[in-house]
Amino acid sequence: MAVKTLQTVENALAVLEVVAELQPIGVSALARHMNMDKNTAQRILITLGASGYIQKQNHGAAWELTPRVLTLSNQVAVNLRKTARQQLQELSEVIGETALLWQLTYVSDKMHATLLDKVESKHNVKITMEVGKQVQFRPDNANTEIVSDLIRRFPTGESSWLRSAHDDHPRYFQINPGHPSSIGIGSVIYDGPALPIALVSVVGPRDRISPDCYKVMGEKTAAAARILSGI
Q1: According to CATH, what is the number of the domain 70-229?
Q2: Residue 161 dihedral angles phi and psi, to the nearest 5°
Q3: Where exactly does CATH 1.10.10.10 map onto the chain?
Q4: CATH code reported for the domain at 7-65
Q5: What is the mean pLDDT of each run of 10 residues along the chain (231 residues)?
Q6: What is the pLDDT of residue 223?
Q7: Are 161 and 223 in contact (CB under 8 A)?
Q8: Which residues lie closer than 8 Å to 119 by C-beta, 6 or more apart?
Q9: What's the CA gap between 106 and 47, in Å, rounded?
């Protein structure tokens, strides 16, 4: 028998997401936005506030997130780095180029990628980036649009690796990561069958990465991404 979910918990998480998106937001606006009874919305806000995840802005009537949510996000990043380290090392060793791990975060309707970890190429000439580098996904950025297109094609781990596992669409992307003489090839890491949470990629100079290498490198990064997705 399937175990039923708790509606109250689902409602609380939904409220937390709306506060994150629309903060600062008052109880009346929240209730209207979610089509929720005002008293229910208020009880959830007070409960989340008592738990330390949200607070009233300047002791007013509107609610906003607290740094505790950031602490949770940081813990996710720590666990992701630890889990992905071996795959990064293997990718860099096998392909011979710098391997990168990017965490995906969402602010309102905007997606960002933050470089969490890297294993650098052993070549004297290599492409590298500083850990902590952030990239905002924008329609006018050709590179991020290429990644966004892949995510739109495969919005979940289920759609990428389970539901349509036998089609011939590649599970990797190829970009020019900020320098005309470089090539980046990567894939999407999912939260199991759920949403994207990260990217894994390899990057190197064009004079070492010829077009006939793209497919092999792409399939290797996709295989690493699938392992890290737990699928």
Answers
A1: 3.30.450.40
A2: -115, -15
A3: 7-65
A4: 1.10.10.10
A5: 69 82 85 89 88 79 77 63 89 94 79 91 90 88 92 92 76 85 93 90 92 92 93 84
A6: 94
A7: no
A8: 85, 88, 89, 91, 92, 98, 99
A9: 24
